[in-house]
């Protein structure tokens, strides 16, 4: 299927590794020009070199840290300079530290809110006018299955990512008539470095071996395995494509059936 992405300009946050990188690779393979961002210039440069060597869409990068107050301004200006504008925005952020809800540190909560919610909304506000004027745009926010079924020991993530669900749905209602589709994509257990980190944290907390933690996680998933980044990225590519022009205001799961609610 031709996803009508050839020549589209895509800004993908947190794309030096994991899900963000996988999405950037999938979009470039469909002919989109992608701007990667993250903290590691070396990783980003290597990623772009690999993407550009494959042909199809082109890749460039900007080293920027969500923790910096200038992040949004830096990234938006880079998108204008390197892409000429943004047709597709993929809001993706790293996860906050694990931990429970009891005794949640409000100072950590405030800092993570700025990075995971405030700056996502600010950046989206910067690129929206161009999309609305063009009559075409895609905003995809990557969250977590924890917004539907809270994940134990990830209370901060469950809290902050849930705030984005209400924002995304509200925004979708306001811009759908302008040809801008706004959706959320929820990964379950997709095998990334972040998931390895969480498995290690759970093993440390429970006193179990890491492989035992992983095996228990796999058995709890109807598909009986962790997902692959490429599988997840393929769903993302469709949701930001021209073919998904009547999909907006939705929260899509890619979790192997792990979420128990309908």
UniProtKB/TrEMBL annotation:
Pfam families found in the cross-reference section = adh_short_C2 (PF13561)
- UniProt-listed Gene3D superfamilies: NAD(P)-binding Rossmann-like Domain (3.40.50.720)
Q: Which domain of life is it from?
A: Bacteria
Point out the signal peptide segment: none
InterPro entries assigned to the protein according to its UniProt record, in alphabetical order: NAD(P)-bd_dom_sf, SDR, SDR_fam
Q: What family, per the record?
A: Belongs to the short-chain dehydrogenases/reductases (SDR) family.
Q: Spell out the protein name for this chain.
A: Oxidoreductase
The species is Aurantimonas manganoxydans (strain ATCC BAA-1229 / DSM 21871 / SI85-9A1)
**Record lineage:** Bacteria, Pseudomonadati, Pseudomonadota, Alphaproteobacteria, Hyphomicrobiales
């Amino acid at each position: 299927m031709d996803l009508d992405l050839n020549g589209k300009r895509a800004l993908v946050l947190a794309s030096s590794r994991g899900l963000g990188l996988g999405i950037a690779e999938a979009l470039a393979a469909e002919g989109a020009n992608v701007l990667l961002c993250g903290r590691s210039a070396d990783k980003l440069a290597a990623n772009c070199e690999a993407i550009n060597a494959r042909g199809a869409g082109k890749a460039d990068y900007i080293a920027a840290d969500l923790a910096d107050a200038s992040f949004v301004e830096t990234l938006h200006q880079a998108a204008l300079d390197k892409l000429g504008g943004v047709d597709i925005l993929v809001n993706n952020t790293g996860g906050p530290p694990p931990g429970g809800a009891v005794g949640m540190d409000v100072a950590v909560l405030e800092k993570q809110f700025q990075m995971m919610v405030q700056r996502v909304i600010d950046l989206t506000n910067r690129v929206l006018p161009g999309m609305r004027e063009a009559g075409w745009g895609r905003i995809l926010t990557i969250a977590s299955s924890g917004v539907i079924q809270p994940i134990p020991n990830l209370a901060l993530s469950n809290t902050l990512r849930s705030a984005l669900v209400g924002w995304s749905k509200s925004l979708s209602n306001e811009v759908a008539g302008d040809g801008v589709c706004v959706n959320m994509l929820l990964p379950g257990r997709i095998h990334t470095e972040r998931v390895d980190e969480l498995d290690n944290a759970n093993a440390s907390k429970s006193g179990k071996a890491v492989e035992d933690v992983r095996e228990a996680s796999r058995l709890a998933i109807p598909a009986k395995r962790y997902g692959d980044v490429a599988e997840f990225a393929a769903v993302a590519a469709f949701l930001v494509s021209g073919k998904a022009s009547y999909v907006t205001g939705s929260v899509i799961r890619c979790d192997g059936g792990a979420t128990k609610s309908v």
